[in-house]
């Protein structure tokens, strides 16, 4: 019989710091990774995660909820979208992103992020 699992981002299984400007707190539940990312003002995937990922653009599929702030997403095909607090987002692989303004973007991500910003 399966048992219920409960975890809290105040005691994450792992914290993955970005190259400056934020971090992702990770928990593992029922074989799935869930992350709470704090992306500080001025954060850019191409500057703060690309050195960790080693790819030209983000290859993770994100499925999440924006708790606060905003983020601009730049798809490899040239399209752009901005997400703000209260938005539910599905972002396919092949993108860059940045946090404009002076407020951090905080997002909970239930997507395919098991290796997102994971070193080594």
Structure in a nutshell:
The protein is mainly β and 120 residues long. The chain is 7% helix and 42% strand.
Overview of this protein structure:
With 120 residues, the protein is mainly β. It has one domain (14-109): Sandwich (Jelly Rolls), CATH 2.60.120.10. It is 7% helix and 42% strand. It has two helices and nine strands, in the order E-E-E-H-H-E-E-E-E-E-E. The chain has helices at residues 45-48, 50-53; strands spanning 14-17, 22-29, 32-39, 62-68, 70-75, 80-84, 88-91, 95-98, 105-109. The strands form two sheets. The chain has a six-stranded antiparallel beta sheet with strand order 1-2-3-9-4-7, with no helix packed on it. The protein has a three-stranded antiparallel beta sheet with strand order 6-5-8, with no helix packed on it. Strand 5 (70-75) and strand 6 form a beta hairpin. The longest helix is centred in the middle third of the chain and has 4 residues, at 45-48. It is globular and about 50 Å long. The mean pLDDT is 97.
Over all CA atoms, what is the radius of gyration? 14 Å
Sheet with the most strands, sense and barrel status: 6 strands, antiparallel
Global outline: globular
Total domain units: 1
CATH architecture: Sandwich
Gap from first CA to last CA: 35 Å
Runs in which pLDDT lies below 50 for 5 or more consecutive residues are none
Mean pLDDT figure? 97
Level of helix content?
under 10%
Count of individual beta strands:
9
What would you call the structural class? mainly beta
Q: Report the CATH superfamily.
A: Jelly Rolls
Tell me which oligomeric state these chains represent.
single chain
